[in-house]
Amino acid sequence: MDSKTFAYHPGNNEQKDRLADLQIALNDMLEVIIDTVPEGRYQQLAIDDLERAGAMAAKGIFKYDDGSARRAEE
């Protein structure tokens, strides 16, 4: 694993655009979950899983599979 794995690496414009698109889609899905799933355990689990999916997708935008950062100059 890259020694700079946990360091901050600012994304390039393409990565930032991808992240913005992802955030829009996640917020849309969050609204669907809140509007359609009754409050309670299953709604919260769905929201938790959505949050986890968003975090992993965002990580995929900025990192390689080995955990090393996709550098802004790439």
Structural commentary:
The protein is mainly alpha-helical and 74 residues long. The chain has helices at 13-36, 41-62. The protein has a domain at 20-62. The protein has two helices and no strands. α1 runs antiparallel to α2 (41-62). It is elongated. It starts with 12 loop residues before the first helix and ends in a 12-residue tail after the last helix.
- Total helical elements: 2
- One letter per element, helices H and strands E, the order comes to HH
Tally of extended strands? 0
What helical percentage do the residues reach?
55-70%
* Spatial extent as radius of gyration: 15 Å
What is the 3D form?
elongated
End-to-end span in angstroms? 18 Å
Instruction: Give a short account of the largest sheet.
Output: none
What percentage of amino acids are in beta strands? under 5%
By oligomeric state, this entry counts as single chain
- What's the mean pLDDT score? 88
Structural class: mainly alpha
Low-confidence runs of at least 5 consecutive residues: none
How would you summarize what this structure contains?
With 74 residues, the protein is mostly helical. The protein has helices spanning 13-36, 41-62.
